[in-house]
């Protein structure tokens, strides 16, 4: 709840740091694009073009995808009431991929927005299935919840791979499952703005999600419709997963580690955590992408690989420090 | 007044609450007692619309709980159940502030803040108000939730086993607080209690349940009687006058 507003100097600091990362991201690359030349107007036309067509879209895509995937994880954790879930541990991302594959096969001529919508619908269905399974199997251990999701994701992923194999689309499937920003140019990332809309939505409904995170009885006592809050949450998560998947491919762990770190720092009141998670997600993706671009310059390592390594380490740390009953 | 008529609930073949009809007076403290599995908590959940009933109706202050708008009910009655789930990392003050949600939907007025501060003081939580819930002991957390319910400021306050995980000092403080809420603020307090001595000492009215039905009900003095209690709990229970109160002895 928005009581007792204190200025958050650290949040402002984090925003500044993220902006600096974005600036660095703009000027990392093979083509010679320099800030002073751009500002002075003395840059070559080719450099300006590279800047506008490739660098700016890429950095924007990084910020948007990072922020919205992290928010997707946060919302998921609140509605499932489990710290270890995010779209890739609940079958959501795999369902989005299955949806995208299906629509690519059946209606290849559809515009990308329509394909994305189908993908989001599949993601919604897959997540609903996950929740249905959770309801049927009362789980005592918090770690079993993501395990069930990972198994469900495995089954859906296998089905997707089978279809892709038959249809000779394995290469596309690999691209969707492995987040990579190297192909981002103007005209190929704009759907990600929908992710930003989802972040804003999460902020507007922050109190409702916080209440839902306290459980069904708690939510009903305060006069809120628990089912409606859950549905809104799942729509946000599915949209975010689909949008990121069709634009840049899925990014593992992000939705898991950023909200968990923020929770340790400032708690779980979403009114406070949404801005942190948004900024943190953007910063994390920017940093990992820059590392991936520099580590064997001039070649690139896909961000999903960097993120997988960094994320696994942080996740392991979080697992080991959290008491099992939490 | 809370009126339940013919309320039933079954889980599969097991009938947990079996056609209960009940009128709980407005004002004062009413305790629901009875052995494990008698249907006390289920009844309380249905009265507070947390659980849908299979049959029957419940009205609280004239509002039909299965038909009235949930947010209107949230300004009329509050319910606190014991929930052993892990709780989100909210500060005590954040939690108590959510008690005002039914009125404000998130924007706190000065009046709301007064309610919040008063509830925090009532429950002696001022020193803990900026702590996260997961850093508190079970008893402190319980008090924080009760403070939230007080901030919700409803005519009817329903608590399911509020003395769970409280030590003697905090248990009696909790019951005194309920008594104050009933007498000073005119609230109607309904509690599910296991400790019949706490129930007898503080309640105005006692309802005893057994096997999904109301086994006996009446003013506390009439209920704390050896033959009434022995029948409900199916064990020997002696009742002694001590310090002007009727105390049950069942430890032997």
Automatic annotation (TrEMBL), chain A:
Main location: membrane
Coiled-coil zones: none
Alphabetic keyword roster: Cell membrane, Membrane, Transmembrane, Transmembrane helix, Transport
GO cellular component: plasma membrane
Topological relation to the membrane, as annotated: Multi-pass membrane protein
Alphabetized InterPro entries for the sequence: ABC_BtuC-like (IPR037294), ABC_transptr_permease_BtuC (IPR000522)
GO molecular function: transmembrane transporter activity
Name of the protein: Iron chelate uptake ABC transporter family permease subunit
Spans traversing the lipid bilayer: 60-80, 116-134, 143-165, 191-211, 232-254, 274-292, 299-320
PANTHER family linked: FERRIC ENTEROBACTIN TRANSPORT SYSTEM PERMEASE PROTEIN, PETROBACTIN IMPORT SYSTEM PERMEASE PROTEIN YCLN
Swiss-Prot/TrEMBL GO biological process terms: siderophore-iron import into cell
Similarity comment: Belongs to the binding-protein-dependent transport system permease family. FecCD subfamily.
Intracellular or extracellular location(s): Cell membrane
TrEMBL record, chain B:
Domain ABC transporter as annotated: residue spans: 2-236
GO aspect biological process, one term: iron ion transport
UniProt entry keywords in alphabetical sequence: ATP-binding, Cell membrane, Ion transport, Iron, Iron transport, Membrane, Nucleotide-binding, Transport
A single MF term (Gene Ontology): ATP binding
InterPro entries reported for this sequence: AAA+_ATPase (IPR003593), ABC_transporter-like_ATP-bd (IPR003439), ABC_transporter-like_CS (IPR017871), P-loop_NTPase (IPR027417), Siderophore_ABC-ATPase (IPR051535)
Pfam families registered for this protein in UniProt: ABC_tran (PF00005)
Subcellular location: Cell membrane
Gene3D superfamilies found in the cross-reference section: P-loop containing nucleotide triphosphate hydrolases (3.40.50.300)
Superkingdom, natural source: Bacteria
GO cellular component: plasma membrane
SUPFAM superfamilies per UniProt: P-loop containing nucleoside triphosphate hydrolases
CDD domains: ABC_Iron-Siderophores_B12_Hemin
Topology class, membrane: Peripheral membrane protein
Primary localization class, coarse: membrane
Family membership noted in the UniProt record: Belongs to the ABC transporter superfamily.
Protein name in UniProt: ABC transporter ATP-binding protein
Species this chain originates from: Devosia aurantiaca
